[in-house]
Amino acid sequence: MTPEEAVAEQERLRPLVVPRADPGLVVRHVAGLDVSYAEDDRLAAAVVVLDAASLETVDEVVVPGRADFPYVPGLFAFRELPSLLTALGKLTVPPDLLVCDGQGLAHPRRFGLACHVGVVTGLPSLGVAKTPMGRFTPPGAARGAHSDLLDGGEVVGRALRTREGVKPVFVSVGHRIDLDRACAEVLRLCVTRLPETTRRADSLGRAQLR
């Protein structure tokens, strides 16, 4: 797929995003998705499933691969999605929610990785990024404080303080979840700044590359 074809694919799938939670959504198992890269084109796509109440790891899969799509801003999902889908397909504990290390609606075409993987799998999904895609006012210092993340005057996510005294993370809707619920789920996953789903998937992917 060329970059031009990838943009067209994003435009085709974007209307399928559902930016609200299903009535009665219960999240018992939550999966963290992360892709680690070596200095060459090698990558490791890791998915770690946690018990949402205890944060105990109940399943994990890592898939080695190679990035066969160029790095193009706004098209990052096309580098990571094939290996992530393979990893998701190998899970023995099905997740109720996907937490992506990246953006959802906070994306130039409102279709970041979290939206893409959610639409393709049909699962509720959200994005948690370390850097913002847009403008924001720093939230208050307390855990749970947040402020709107804005792009072109549109609210595309939130800057969320997950721990007192640390930098906020940037949460955006992926699919089949709303922003309030997304932030609540991220908060209960955070012991440190980042969700445990992201931390453990990152660690698993890096170990595979080593």
Automatic annotation (TrEMBL):
Annotated Mg(2+) binding sites: D34, D101
Keyword check for Protein biosynthesis: no
Domain of life of the native organism: Bacteria
UniProt family annotation: Belongs to the endonuclease V family.
Function: DNA repair enzyme involved in the repair of deaminated bases. Selectively cleaves double-stranded DNA at the second phosphodiester bond 3' to a deoxyinosine leaving behind the intact lesion on the nicked DNA.
Entry's EC annotation: 3.1.21.7
Catalytic activity: Endonucleolytic cleavage at apurinic or apyrimidinic sites to products with a 5'-phosphate
UniProt keyword list: Cytoplasm, DNA damage, DNA repair, Endonuclease, Hydrolase, Magnesium, Metal-binding, Nuclease
Site (Interaction with target DNA): Y71
Record's keyword annotation contains Nuclease: yes
Full protein name: Endonuclease V
Co-factor requirement: Mg(2+)
A Pfam family: Endonuclease_5
Gene Ontology MF term list: endonuclease activity
Phylogenetic placement of the source organism: Bacteria, Bacillati, Actinomycetota, Actinomycetes, Pseudonocardiales
Protein location: Cytoplasm
InterPro entries, A to Z: Endonuclease-V (IPR007581)
